[in-house]
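Friendly challenge for the regulars: who can give me the C-alpha coordinates for this chain first? No prize, just bragging rights.
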Amino acid sequence: MTKMRIALLTLLSLLAFAANSIITRFALENTNIDEASFIMLRLVSGALFLWLFLLFKQDKSGWQKGSWLAALALFIYAVSFTYGYGMIAAGTGALLLFGSVQVTMTIAGYRAGERLNNIQGLGFILALIGLAILMLPGITAPPLLGALLMCISGIAWGMYTLQGRGANNPYASTAGNFIKSAPMALILWLSLSISSNHTINLDAFGIAYALLSGIVTSGLGYIIWYSVLPQLKVNHAAIIQLSVPVIVTFLGALLLDEIITIRVIASSLAILFGTYLVLNYKRVNYSQNRQ
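First reply, four minutes later:
Bragging rights claimed.
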Protein backbone atom coordinates (compact mmCIF):
# COMPACT_ATOMS: atom_id res chain seq x y z
CA MET A 1 0.00 0.00 0.00
CA THR A 2 1.48 3.37 -1.07
CA LYS A 3 1.96 6.23 1.40
CA MET A 4 -0.59 8.31 -0.50
CA ARG A 5 -3.18 5.53 -0.23
CA ILE A 6 -2.45 5.07 3.49
CA ALA A 7 -2.84 8.81 4.09
CA LEU A 8 -6.10 8.97 2.11
CA LEU A 9 -7.67 5.96 3.84
CA THR A 10 -6.59 7.25 7.25
CA LEU A 11 -8.17 10.63 6.53
CA LEU A 12 -11.40 8.99 5.32
CA SER A 13 -11.66 6.85 8.46
CA LEU A 14 -11.07 9.84 10.76
CA LEU A 15 -13.69 11.84 8.88
CA ALA A 16 -16.11 8.92 9.28
CA PHE A 17 -15.54 8.78 13.04
CA ALA A 18 -16.02 12.55 13.32
CA ALA A 19 -19.11 12.41 11.09
CA ASN A 20 -20.79 10.02 13.53
CA SER A 21 -20.92 12.80 16.12
CA ILE A 22 -22.09 15.42 13.61
CA ILE A 23 -24.77 13.18 12.07
CA THR A 24 -26.15 12.08 15.43
CA ARG A 25 -26.25 15.63 16.80
CA PHE A 26 -27.80 17.01 13.60
CA ALA A 27 -30.46 14.28 13.39
CA LEU A 28 -31.58 14.70 16.99
CA GLU A 29 -31.66 18.49 16.74
CA ASN A 30 -33.14 18.95 13.26
CA THR A 31 -35.42 15.94 12.70
CA ASN A 32 -38.19 14.37 14.77
CA ILE A 33 -36.61 10.93 15.15
CA ASP A 34 -36.44 9.72 18.74
CA GLU A 35 -33.24 8.46 20.31
CA ALA A 36 -34.33 4.81 20.66
CA SER A 37 -35.22 4.60 16.95
CA PHE A 38 -31.91 6.18 15.98
CA ILE A 39 -29.99 3.68 18.14
CA MET A 40 -31.92 0.71 16.78
CA LEU A 41 -31.51 1.73 13.13
CA ARG A 42 -27.83 2.53 13.55
CA LEU A 43 -26.89 -0.78 15.18
CA VAL A 44 -29.17 -2.99 13.08
CA SER A 45 -28.13 -1.41 9.77
CA GLY A 46 -24.47 -1.53 10.81
CA ALA A 47 -24.82 -5.22 11.72
CA LEU A 48 -26.52 -6.03 8.41
CA PHE A 49 -23.92 -4.13 6.38
CA LEU A 50 -20.97 -5.77 8.15
CA TRP A 51 -22.58 -9.22 7.82
CA LEU A 52 -23.04 -8.68 4.06
CA PHE A 53 -19.45 -7.47 3.82
CA LEU A 54 -18.22 -10.70 5.40
CA LEU A 55 -20.36 -12.74 3.00
CA PHE A 56 -18.83 -10.80 0.12
CA LYS A 57 -15.40 -11.70 1.52
CA GLN A 58 -16.62 -15.33 1.72
CA ASP A 59 -16.26 -15.25 5.49
CA LYS A 60 -19.22 -16.80 7.34
CA SER A 61 -17.73 -16.41 10.83
CA GLY A 62 -19.48 -13.14 11.69
CA TRP A 63 -22.12 -14.85 13.80
CA GLN A 64 -19.51 -16.64 15.89
CA LYS A 65 -16.95 -13.85 16.31
CA GLY A 66 -16.97 -11.11 18.89
CA SER A 67 -18.36 -11.55 22.38
CA TRP A 68 -21.53 -10.75 24.28
CA LEU A 69 -19.56 -8.60 26.72
CA ALA A 70 -18.10 -6.51 23.89
CA ALA A 71 -21.57 -6.28 22.29
CA LEU A 72 -23.02 -5.04 25.59
CA ALA A 73 -20.29 -2.40 25.82
CA LEU A 74 -21.07 -1.38 22.22
CA PHE A 75 -24.77 -1.14 23.05
CA ILE A 76 -24.14 0.97 26.18
CA TYR A 77 -21.86 3.22 24.14
CA ALA A 78 -24.51 3.69 21.45
CA VAL A 79 -27.29 4.42 23.97
CA SER A 80 -25.34 6.92 26.07
CA PHE A 81 -23.75 8.45 22.94
CA THR A 82 -27.13 9.06 21.31
CA TYR A 83 -29.01 10.30 24.36
CA GLY A 84 -26.00 12.42 25.32
CA TYR A 85 -25.92 14.10 21.93
CA GLY A 86 -29.57 14.99 22.38
CA MET A 87 -28.40 17.40 25.07
CA ILE A 88 -24.88 18.50 24.25
CA ALA A 89 -22.90 20.18 21.47
CA ALA A 90 -21.02 17.95 19.04
CA GLY A 91 -17.53 19.26 19.82
CA THR A 92 -18.00 19.21 23.58
CA GLY A 93 -19.46 15.70 23.39
CA ALA A 94 -16.53 14.45 21.31
CA LEU A 95 -14.03 15.85 23.82
CA LEU A 96 -15.81 14.22 26.75
CA LEU A 97 -16.09 10.95 24.83
CA PHE A 98 -12.46 10.91 23.73
CA GLY A 99 -11.11 11.98 27.11
CA SER A 100 -13.13 9.31 28.90
CA VAL A 101 -11.90 6.63 26.48
CA GLN A 102 -8.27 7.49 27.15
CA VAL A 103 -8.74 7.71 30.93
CA THR A 104 -10.51 4.33 30.92
CA MET A 105 -7.80 2.63 28.90
CA THR A 106 -5.02 4.18 31.00
CA ILE A 107 -6.64 2.94 34.22
CA ALA A 108 -7.12 -0.51 32.66
CA GLY A 109 -3.44 -0.56 31.71
CA TYR A 110 -2.48 0.38 35.26
CA ARG A 111 -4.58 -2.47 36.65
CA ALA A 112 -2.86 -4.83 34.20
CA GLY A 113 0.58 -3.86 35.55
CA GLU A 114 1.49 -1.01 33.21
CA ARG A 115 2.98 1.98 34.99
CA LEU A 116 3.19 5.58 33.83
CA ASN A 117 6.46 7.45 33.95
CA ASN A 118 6.57 11.05 35.18
CA ILE A 119 5.77 12.58 31.81
CA GLN A 120 2.89 10.16 31.23
CA GLY A 121 1.60 10.87 34.73
CA LEU A 122 1.60 14.58 33.94
CA GLY A 123 -0.29 13.85 30.72
CA PHE A 124 -2.89 11.76 32.56
CA ILE A 125 -3.45 14.57 35.08
CA LEU A 126 -3.79 17.10 32.26
CA ALA A 127 -6.45 14.94 30.58
CA LEU A 128 -8.37 14.71 33.86
CA ILE A 129 -8.11 18.49 34.28
CA GLY A 130 -9.47 18.93 30.76
CA LEU A 131 -12.48 16.78 31.56
CA ALA A 132 -13.00 18.69 34.82
CA ILE A 133 -12.93 22.03 32.98
CA LEU A 134 -15.80 20.87 30.79
CA MET A 135 -17.79 19.44 33.70
CA LEU A 136 -17.45 22.38 36.12
CA PRO A 137 -20.63 24.46 36.59
CA GLY A 138 -20.78 27.77 34.79
CA ILE A 139 -22.61 29.77 32.16
CA THR A 140 -20.95 27.90 29.29
CA ALA A 141 -20.94 24.48 30.95
CA PRO A 142 -22.80 21.69 29.10
CA PRO A 143 -25.87 20.12 30.76
CA LEU A 144 -24.62 17.83 33.52
CA LEU A 145 -26.72 14.83 32.44
CA GLY A 146 -25.54 15.15 28.83
CA ALA A 147 -21.93 15.43 29.96
CA LEU A 148 -22.27 12.37 32.22
CA LEU A 149 -23.82 10.36 29.38
CA MET A 150 -20.94 11.23 27.06
CA CYS A 151 -18.47 10.15 29.76
CA ILE A 152 -20.36 6.86 30.13
CA SER A 153 -20.21 6.38 26.36
CA GLY A 154 -16.44 6.95 26.49
CA ILE A 155 -16.00 4.44 29.30
CA ALA A 156 -18.10 1.89 27.38
CA TRP A 157 -16.12 2.48 24.19
CA GLY A 158 -12.87 2.06 26.10
CA MET A 159 -14.13 -1.27 27.46
CA TYR A 160 -15.25 -2.29 23.96
CA THR A 161 -11.80 -1.46 22.59
CA LEU A 162 -10.09 -3.44 25.35
CA GLN A 163 -12.36 -6.43 24.67
CA GLY A 164 -11.43 -6.45 20.99
CA ARG A 165 -7.72 -5.75 21.39
CA GLY A 166 -5.61 -8.37 19.61
CA ALA A 167 -8.47 -9.86 17.60
CA ASN A 168 -7.16 -12.06 14.78
CA ASN A 169 -9.93 -10.97 12.43
CA PRO A 170 -11.07 -7.43 13.37
CA TYR A 171 -13.65 -7.33 10.55
CA ALA A 172 -15.38 -10.49 11.78
CA SER A 173 -15.11 -9.45 15.43
CA THR A 174 -16.65 -6.05 14.69
CA ALA A 175 -19.43 -7.66 12.65
CA GLY A 176 -20.07 -10.22 15.39
CA ASN A 177 -20.30 -7.53 18.05
CA PHE A 178 -22.70 -5.44 15.94
CA ILE A 179 -24.83 -8.53 15.23
CA LYS A 180 -24.99 -9.39 18.93
CA SER A 181 -25.82 -5.79 19.89
CA ALA A 182 -28.67 -5.52 17.36
CA PRO A 183 -31.17 -7.59 19.46
CA MET A 184 -30.39 -5.37 22.46
CA ALA A 185 -31.24 -2.29 20.43
CA LEU A 186 -34.42 -3.94 19.14
CA ILE A 187 -35.51 -4.87 22.69
CA LEU A 188 -34.93 -1.28 23.84
CA TRP A 189 -36.90 0.07 20.89
CA LEU A 190 -39.80 -2.39 21.31
CA SER A 191 -40.00 -1.81 25.07
CA LEU A 192 -40.18 1.96 24.56
CA SER A 193 -42.67 1.49 21.70
CA ILE A 194 -45.25 0.06 24.12
CA SER A 195 -44.42 2.52 26.90
CA SER A 196 -46.98 5.26 27.48
CA ASN A 197 -44.22 7.62 28.63
CA HIS A 198 -42.21 7.49 25.42
CA THR A 199 -43.05 8.47 21.86
CA ILE A 200 -41.52 6.55 18.96
CA ASN A 201 -41.14 8.74 15.89
CA LEU A 202 -39.69 7.26 12.71
CA ASP A 203 -39.08 10.57 10.97
CA ALA A 204 -38.09 10.01 7.32
CA PHE A 205 -35.04 12.29 7.37
CA GLY A 206 -34.09 10.95 10.81
CA ILE A 207 -34.20 7.40 9.44
CA ALA A 208 -31.90 8.44 6.59
CA TYR A 209 -29.38 9.93 9.02
CA ALA A 210 -29.52 6.85 11.28
CA LEU A 211 -28.87 4.56 8.31
CA LEU A 212 -26.06 6.84 7.15
CA SER A 213 -24.53 6.58 10.62
CA GLY A 214 -24.94 2.81 10.80
CA ILE A 215 -23.89 1.83 7.28
CA VAL A 216 -21.42 4.50 6.18
CA THR A 217 -19.77 6.23 9.15
CA SER A 218 -19.89 3.14 11.39
CA GLY A 219 -19.81 0.03 9.19
CA LEU A 220 -17.80 1.36 6.24
CA GLY A 221 -15.74 3.61 8.53
CA TYR A 222 -14.55 0.60 10.56
CA ILE A 223 -13.74 -1.36 7.39
CA ILE A 224 -11.58 1.51 6.10
CA TRP A 225 -9.89 1.97 9.49
CA TYR A 226 -9.03 -1.70 9.90
CA SER A 227 -7.71 -1.86 6.34
CA VAL A 228 -5.15 0.86 7.08
CA LEU A 229 -4.46 0.06 10.75
CA PRO A 230 -1.83 -2.67 10.03
CA GLN A 231 0.16 -0.05 8.12
CA LEU A 232 0.35 2.27 11.15
CA LYS A 233 2.40 1.93 14.31
CA VAL A 234 0.25 1.45 17.42
CA ASN A 235 1.24 4.77 18.98
CA HIS A 236 0.86 6.58 15.68
CA ALA A 237 -2.63 5.16 15.20
CA ALA A 238 -3.67 6.25 18.69
CA ILE A 239 -2.15 9.73 18.32
CA ILE A 240 -3.74 10.22 14.89
CA GLN A 241 -7.14 9.77 16.52
CA LEU A 242 -6.44 12.88 18.59
CA SER A 243 -7.60 14.82 15.55
CA VAL A 244 -11.17 13.44 15.77
CA PRO A 245 -12.51 15.75 18.52
CA VAL A 246 -10.78 18.70 16.83
CA ILE A 247 -12.48 17.83 13.52
CA VAL A 248 -15.83 17.44 15.29
CA THR A 249 -15.45 20.79 17.07
CA PHE A 250 -14.78 22.71 13.87
CA LEU A 251 -17.42 20.83 11.85
CA GLY A 252 -19.90 21.55 14.65
CA ALA A 253 -19.11 25.24 14.40
CA LEU A 254 -19.29 25.17 10.59
CA LEU A 255 -22.36 22.98 10.06
CA LEU A 256 -24.34 23.26 13.29
CA ASP A 257 -23.54 26.87 14.25
CA GLU A 258 -22.06 25.71 17.56
CA ILE A 259 -19.96 28.24 19.46
CA ILE A 260 -16.33 27.44 20.24
CA THR A 261 -15.93 28.85 23.75
CA ILE A 262 -12.80 29.54 25.78
CA ARG A 263 -13.85 26.61 28.01
CA VAL A 264 -13.86 24.24 25.00
CA ILE A 265 -10.50 25.52 23.76
CA ALA A 266 -8.89 25.18 27.21
CA SER A 267 -10.26 21.69 27.79
CA SER A 268 -9.29 20.65 24.25
CA LEU A 269 -5.68 21.68 24.80
CA ALA A 270 -5.51 19.92 28.17
CA ILE A 271 -7.16 16.67 26.99
CA LEU A 272 -5.36 16.39 23.67
CA PHE A 273 -1.89 17.38 24.90
CA GLY A 274 -2.28 15.21 27.99
CA THR A 275 -3.31 12.23 25.89
CA TYR A 276 -0.41 12.87 23.52
CA LEU A 277 2.04 12.68 26.41
CA VAL A 278 0.54 9.42 27.66
CA LEU A 279 0.59 7.81 24.22
CA ASN A 280 3.92 9.10 23.00
CA TYR A 281 6.01 7.87 25.91
CA LYS A 282 6.40 4.13 26.28
CA ARG A 283 4.76 2.57 29.31
CA VAL A 284 6.92 0.42 31.55
CA ASN A 285 5.59 -2.88 32.83
CA TYR A 286 5.71 -2.93 36.60
CA SER A 287 6.42 -6.63 36.82
CA GLN A 288 9.46 -6.19 34.57
CA ASN A 289 10.77 -3.38 36.78
CA ARG A 290 10.74 -5.65 39.81
CA GLN A 291 12.82 -8.37 38.17
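The beta strands are 114-115, 284-285. The longest helix spans residues 3-30. Your move, everyone else.
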